[in-house]
Amino acid sequence: MYEALIIGGGIGGLTLAIALQQRGIRAAVYEAAPLMRPVGAGILLPPNAMRIFRQLGLADKLRDAGVVPAATEIRDARAGVLQRIDTRLFAERYGEPMVAIHRGRLHAILADALDPAQLHLGKRCSTIHDDSDGIRVRFSDESEAYGNILIGADGLRSIVRRQLFPDAALRYSGQSSFRAIAPVSLPDDLRQTGWEVWGAGCRFGFTAIAPNQVYWYATMDATEKTLRADESGLAQLHQLFAGFPPTVGDLIAATPAEAIIATDIHDLQPLATWHRGRIGLLGDAAHATTPNLGQGGAQAVEDAAVLAACLAANPSDPQQAFGRYEAQRYAQATMVVERSRSMGRMAHMRNPLARTLRNGLVRLIPYSITERQYDVLFSDRRTPT
Asked: What pLDDT does 381 receive?
């Protein structure tokens, strides 16, 4: 039976540890951060993620800790509503709703589901040695951990991936973002409705995640490493989104500068494989995606469920387990990366004629086609191991 070392205590790493724990497989999570603080902004948990959290016994806690949106709207800053989706139908079609939640609350619920002895904080991975006796990890504090398999769930700039595949390349999308939680309540007509508003070279989205918390994000075409999360960043936001609906300006105005997170948006050039020997990758470490489909966290959760099942079904052959995991997940995760990248370009169109044509096409899309697009993302596509 395996003794798994999981590098990274984010959504994917914690979910994998819970899934392994429930299958009787020993696993330990090593997280670089010294404390599990309620950091980050918001996240949407779509039905494909919530289905797995249901199987892990966590869906009701997550739903109670967040908000279930009734609808989401795609808008153009000048042309108004382009598409409205009744997200209440997701629960009927896919078995689970979409939940909007603070990332800090999500992490806390996942961490609480683990045996405390499994979670080790302040452990930044420095080196990994895979030899005949097993896998040895050395951390920056000079401590070490030993196991017979290792999973890198350490995100976009994965140290594990760098050691396995040093030539792996991140791709800057040409877009950067601001994200924050505004300490306000939305008007009655928006408390269960999320918006994404498209402009020329930018967009702004928001959704309530608690009675007095609204998660918002703003993305814009930008040169890499130029955004600043300070008063100058707030001024830039006010200027860029001045022509957007008033709610957008109200949310920006209600947000203190210290609450804003600035992030350049990257994805990962698809890797040829996600594993080597007894070491595998999961989530952003394997297939980092831009956030345009709202699937980054969900894809990590799906990875975790499939990998746990494959390890349990192949208790003495990690190569076979990792191979089966990759066979089930590679095509779907790669499709999400590429489709998300395309969606970001479409939302940021600058040419007025192109935007007019795009808006007309989006308005004309029958719901049956939109539903099929959601089926590709939300349906349960796992196969028996």
From this structure: 77
As a whole number of angstroms, the distance between CA 196 and CA 202 comes to: 11
Quote the CA–CA distance of 312 and 320 in Å, as a whole number. Answer: 11
Residue 53 token pair:
């959290």
Structural contact between residues 28 and 4, judged by C-beta atoms closer than 8 angstroms = yes
Whole-number Å distance between alpha carbons of 255 and 253: 6
- Supply the pLDDT for residue 256: 93
For residues 49-70, b (16+ Cβ closer than 10 Å) or e, as one string? bbbbbbebebbebbbebbbbbe
Provide the token pair at 163: 């050691």
Nearest to 55 by CA among 227, 355, 308, 265: 308
**pTM greater than 0.85 (yes/no):** yes
H or E segment to which residue 125 belongs? strand 125-131
State residue 288's pLDDT score: 98
Taking 70 as the pLDDT cut, the residues of the chain under it are: 38, 383-385
Q: What is the pLDDT of residue 133?
A: 84
CA 74 to chain centre: 20
In angstroms, the Cα distances linking 216 to 110, 114, 129, 184, 264 are 23, 30, 42, 11, 16
* Nearest residue to 7 (alpha-carbon basis) of 110, 161, 141: 161
pLDDT for the residue 294: 96
Phi then psi for residue 156, to 5 deg, are: -55, -45
